[in-house]
Design a protein that fits this description.
Structural class: mainly alpha
Number of domains: 2
CATH superfamily of the largest domain: lambda repressor-like DNA-binding domains
Radius of gyration: 18 Å
Number of helices: 7
Number of strands: 0
Largest sheet: none
Shape: elongated
Mean pLDDT: 91
Low-confidence stretches: none
Helix content: 55-70%
CATH architecture of the largest domain: Orthogonal Bundle
Order of helices and strands: HHHHHHH
Length: about 100
Amino acid sequence: MDKKILLGRRLRELRKRNGINQEELAEMVSVEPATISNIENGKNYPSMTNLENILSVLNCNFTDAFDFEHTNSNENLIEEINTALKNNPSKIADFYKIITALIK
């Protein structure tokens, strides 16, 4: 998926987690509400200054903003798990224990 869209979705998620609407966030970072909307809808990347200000208001860091792993499709996640298992055969038993513990 397009990184611009993923970043926008992630920033929206972080904003909502903080209980802030787009208008409030826009006011806090001194931009127009349309700017926040365009960022969250994946139409525009934020400038570095705006991103820093948004993250500051949301009490987040750059790592939080670019943490897209939870947005992967199930197929992509299964593929990543299979790759991890192939690259770490000595850890297969550990993976199995973790998965079975989560299922129970």
